[in-house]
Amino acid sequence: MRRQLDINPKAFGNILNGSKEFELRLYDRETWDLQLGDEIVFTDFAERSRRLVVRVEGLLRYPTFRALFSDLDYGRCGPADSLEKKMAGIYQYYTPVQEEAAGVVAIKMRLLEKL
Predict the structure, then answer these.
(1) Angle subtended at Cα 43 by Cα 48 and Cα 53, rounded to the nearest 5 degrees
(2) C-alpha span between 92 and 9 (Å, rounded)
(3) Closest by Cα among 81, 79, 63 to 71
(4) I need a labelling partner for 13 at 20 to 30 A (CA). Which of 44, 54, 64, 115 fits?
């Protein structure tokens, strides 16, 4: 299955340069039915013509991002100077209330192509 998701410009660049191995999302209607082998077309939401395709190679579900980072090195989810800075970056997009209600997923991905 192939689906479309928007992504911020920094994360888009980090996938392209290989420094982002996992995409972090709420476990919600956009992600609950993802399966291994699915393809995701990410569109840079600041520059809509920039798109790339990844293959889902793993799915890690957790109740919170902090719980996820107890098992997964936050550096594998894109560059960050510290766990606290990574958490602050995540909370620019999601609230703790959303996180608690939905849970979270780390999507292990492999870049297939830039469109």
Answers:
(1) 135
(2) 14
(3) 63
(4) 64
